[in-house]
C-alpha cells in the first residue's frame, strides 16, 4: 500500500545529478564556496547548466554581480566537508580557509577552481530570465578541467537533511550518442 509523501520531501527523490560546489568571487571579497544539488543540463554543445541559487545565499549576490562561477564536483571523500560548507554562510566564514580547500586560478572566470575536485567547470551566466521568479541561472561552461588523480573517484548525491548517497556500479549499454 502506498503512503502519502509530504511535498517538501519530493526533491529528495528527484535530484538530477551529483552535489557540486559552486565557487564565486565578488569584487574586493574573498572567494566563497557553497554546496548545490539543484542543477541540470540544459544543452550539450555548448554545455548549458541551469542552477538554482537561493537569493538568501551569500553566493547569489556574487553570482548576480559578476555573472561568473565555477561548478566543482567533489569526491565522496569530501562528504563531511560538503555538509559543513552547507551549514555555514560566506557572510562570516572564510570557507576555503576553514575547510582547507585549495583555490586555484581559473582561465576565464574570477571565481577559483577547487584543487580537491574531480572536475571543475568554469561558467558564465548566459540567461537570467527566471532568476527573479525562481532564482534560476542558466550558465554556459566555457572551460572544463579534470583531475586525473581522481579518475575513479565516486561522486555524492544529496537526498536532503544530511543524507547522501555515493555513486554505485557503472553500467555500459549500447548507445548511438558519442
UniProtKB/TrEMBL annotation:
Recorded superkingdom: Bacteria
Flavin reductase like domain ranges (all copies): 13-164
SMART domains from the UniProt entry: Flavin_Reduct
Xref: InterPro entries: Flavin_Rdtase-like_dom, Flavoredoxin, Split_barrel_FMN-bd
Gene3D superfamilies assigned: Electron Transport, Fmn-binding Protein, Chain A
Keyword Flavoprotein attached: yes
Required cofactor names: FMN
Pfam families linked: Flavin_Reduct
Protein's recorded name: Flavin reductase (DIM6/NTAB) family NADH-FMN oxidoreductase RutF
Protein family (similarity comment): Belongs to the flavoredoxin family.
Species of the source: Acidocella aromatica
GO terms assigned for molecular function: FMN binding; oxidoreductase activity, acting on the CH-NH group of donors, NAD or NADP as acceptor
UniProt KW keywords: Flavoprotein
Keyword Phosphoprotein: no
Amino acid at each position: 500500500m502506498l503512503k502519502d509523501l509530504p511535498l517538501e520531501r519530493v526533491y529528495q527523490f528527484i535530484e538530477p545529478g551529483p552535489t557540486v560546489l559552486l565557487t564565486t568571487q565578488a569584487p574586493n571579497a574573498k572567494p566563497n564556496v557553497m554546496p548545490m544539488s539543484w542543477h541540470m543540463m540544459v544543452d550539450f554543445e555548448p554545455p548549458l547548466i541551469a542552477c538554482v541559487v537561493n537569493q538568501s545565499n551569500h553566493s547569489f549576490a556574487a553570482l548576480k554581480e559578476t555573472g561568473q562561477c565555477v561548478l566543482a564536483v567533489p569526491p565522496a571523500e569530501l562528504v563531511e566537508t560538503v555538509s559543513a560548507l552547507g551549514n555555514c554562510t560566506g557572510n562570516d566564514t572564510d570557507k576555503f580557509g576553514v575547510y582547507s580547500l585549495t583555490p586555484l586560478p581559473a582561465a576565464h572566470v574570477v571565481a577559483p577552481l577547487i584543487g580537491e575536485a574531480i572536475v571543475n567547470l568554469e561558467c558564465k551566466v548566459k540567461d537570467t530570465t527566471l532568476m527573479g521568479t525562481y532564482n534560476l541561472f542558466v550558465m554556459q561552461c566555457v572551460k572544463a578541467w579534470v583531475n586525473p588523480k581522481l579518475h575513479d573517484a565516486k561522486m555524492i548525491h544529496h537526498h536532503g537533511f544530511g543524507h547522501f548517497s555515493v555513486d554505485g556500479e557503472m553500467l555500459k549499454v549500447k548507445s548511438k550518442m558519442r
